[in-house]
């Protein structure tokens, strides 16, 4: 940071755990922080800015105090909530209000001459495409599992039948299904070729080699342009070895060293996508680290809490870095 | 403003990740239902650790909306579930 008046803007929910950890880290470094949740706008926050010679100038008044745009030198973008128009508007009015908020306040924030961690909203949005993630990882020298994306049932069956250790299905983005009246989640699930139905034709489906049999542990890495920290996640139950989210109660966590080629590949990945940080998921076998995904804004706080690995320090240092 | 489905994800701000915030509303399945939707299963409870939620912990929110009933527009709300 270049001056005592400069601040880091934490764009996050008021009780976001990751933002709190980063806030605490920045506090110990005597860096001023400001918190803003986009859900506060337009009802609980007031915007008044004018275009000046070097950008937008003015103040956002929030429930936690005023935010002067010129004071913001860095932004931690940690999944703030959608804008919330006033209650009582019609759907058309609310849709208008939301779109104008998004392109108005969103545009003002996006224009800030600030360092964004893990990246500016557009970059982060781009980086959510799983096929893009896998392709960039491969180009950056990271090992990736055999993967197919298709809406061709025959191609999907052929792919599944061709995997020596079987295949799994993973949703590309849409995790939650609630049209039965109960929320359900799509986990990484094993699939035999003969189970694959014609409904695959209805949209894109992602199939991947089943890695559960050869998996030693999962690893979740927080990588920035200046360093990385990693935690191994060990599951015992067979289905949790395929998807650790199925057995949170019985997972073991431990810090783990990241091989230099993997760390270097992750850094190349971030640069390729214009990111400054990312949360990577790997499957570790006895021979390799296989890239699974990278969520720029994904969670890591519970891993720091479980292991003491100082991931928030990495984020804080990235926010404080000189351009 | 572009309505291109490929551009929409790029410029969203910050409307959240698609499919991570969905209404809980029973709807009949159709013959063209995407195969992957039926791979969904119930979520085991994720034990809390301090204040930091697990990536698949969820919460439910009530959302105001309108619906049409016999040509009359009425106010209502619905529940949606949200995950990270």
What's the gist of this structure?
Chain B: Residues 55-65 have a biased composition (Polar residues). The complex is a heterodimer of chains A (323) and B (84). Chain A has 323 residues and is α+β, with helices and mostly antiparallel strands.
Task: Please tell me about this protein's structure.
Chain A has 323 residues and is an alpha+beta fold. Chain A has nine helices and 18 strands. Chain A has a five-stranded antiparallel sheet with strand order 16-15-14-17-18, with helices on both faces. In chain A, strands 2-1-6-7 form a four-stranded parallel sheet, covered by helices on one side. Chain A has a four-stranded antiparallel sheet with strand order 8-13-9-12, with helices on one face. Chain A is globular, with a radius of gyration of 22 Å. Chain B is mainly beta. Chain B has a domain at 19-24 and 54-84. Chain B is built from one helix and four strands; from the N terminus they run H-E-E-E-E. Chain B has one helix at 5-11, and strands at residues 21-23, 40-41, 58-69, 72-83. In chain B, strand 3 and strand 4 (72-83) form a beta hairpin. The two termini of chain B are 28 Å apart. At the A-B interface, helix 1, helix 2, helix 3, strand 10 and strand 11 of A face helix 1, strand 1, strand 2, strand 3 and strand 4 of B.
Keywords:
heterodimer; A: 323 residues; alpha+beta; D-amino Acid Aminotransferase, Chain A, domain 1; 3 domains; five-stranded antiparallel β-sheet; four-stranded parallel β-sheet; 9 helices; 18 strands; globular; B: 84 residues; mainly beta; three-stranded antiparallel β-sheet; 1 helix; 4 strands; 8% helix
Can you lay out the helices and strands and say which pair or pack?
The complex is a heterodimer of chains A (323) and B (84).
Chain A: E1 7-12, H1 17-28, E2 32-36, E3 46-52, E4 55-62, E5 65-68, E6 72-78, H2 91-110, E7 115-117, H3 121-126, H4 130-139, E8 147-150, H5 153-161, E9 167-170, E10 176-177, E11 184-186, E12 189-191, E13 205-209, E14 217-224, E15 227-234, H6 238-242, E16 252-255, H7 260-272, E17 277-284, E18 289-295, H8 301-307, H9 311-320
Parallel strand pairs in A: 1-2, 1-6, 6-7
Antiparallel strand pairs in A: 3-4, 4-5, 8-13, 9-12, 9-13, 10-11, 14-15, 14-17, 15-16, 17-18
Helix pairs in contact in A: 1-9
Chain B: H1 5-11, E1 21-23, E2 40-41, E3 58-69, E4 72-83
Antiparallel strand pairs in B: 1-4, 3-4
């Amino acid at each position: 940071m270049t001056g005592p008046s400069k601040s880091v803007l934490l764009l996050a929910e008021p009780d976001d755990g990751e933002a709190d950890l980063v806030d605490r880290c920045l506090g110990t470094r005597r860096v001023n922080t400001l918190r803003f949740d986009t859900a506060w706008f337009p009802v609980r926050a007031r915007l008044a800015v004018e275009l000046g010679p070097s950008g937008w100038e003015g103040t956002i008044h929030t429930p936690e105090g005023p935010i002067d745009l010129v004071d913001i030198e860095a932004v931690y973008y940690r999944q703030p909530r959608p804008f919330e128009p006033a209650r009582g508007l019609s759907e058309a009015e609310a849709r208008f209000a939301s779109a104008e908020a998004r392109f108005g306040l969103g545009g003002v924030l996006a224009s800030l001459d600030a360092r964004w961690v893990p990246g500016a909203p557009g970059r982060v949005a781009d980086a959510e495409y799983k096929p893009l993630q896998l392709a960039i990882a491969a180009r950056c020298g990271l090992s990736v599992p055999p993967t197919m994306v298709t809406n061709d049932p025959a191609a999907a069956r052929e792919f599944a039948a061709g995997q020596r250790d079987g295949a799994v299905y993973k949703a590309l983005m849409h995790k939650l299904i609630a049209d039965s009246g109960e929320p359900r989640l799509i986990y990484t699930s094993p699939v035999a070729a003969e189970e694959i139905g014609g409904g695959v034709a209805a949209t894109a489906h992602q199939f991947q080699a089943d890695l559960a049999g050869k998996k030693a542990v999962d690893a979740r890495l927080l990588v920035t342009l200046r360093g990385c920290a990693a935690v191994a996640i060990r599951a015992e139950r067979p289905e949790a070895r395929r998807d650790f989210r199925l057995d949170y109660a019985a997972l073991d966590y431990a810090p783990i060293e990241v091989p230099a080629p993997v760390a270097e590949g992750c850094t190349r990945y971030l640069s390729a996508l214009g990111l400054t940080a990312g949360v990577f998921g790997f499957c570790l076998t006895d021979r390799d680290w296989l890239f699974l995904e990278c969520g720029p804004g994904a969670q890591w706080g519970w891993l720091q809490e479980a292991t003491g690995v100082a991931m928030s320090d990495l984020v804080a240092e990235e926010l404080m870095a000189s351009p | 403003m572009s309505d291109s489905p490929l551009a929409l994800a790029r410029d969203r701000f910050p409307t959240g990740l698609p499919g991570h915030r969905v209404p809980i509303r029973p709807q009949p399945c159709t013959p063209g239902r995407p195969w992957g939707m039926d791979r969904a299963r119930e979520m085991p409870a994720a034990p809390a650790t301090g204040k930091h939620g697990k990536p698949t912990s969820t919460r439910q929110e009530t959302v105001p909306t309108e619906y049409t009933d016999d040509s009359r527009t009425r106010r209502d709300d619905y529940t949606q579930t949200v995950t990270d």
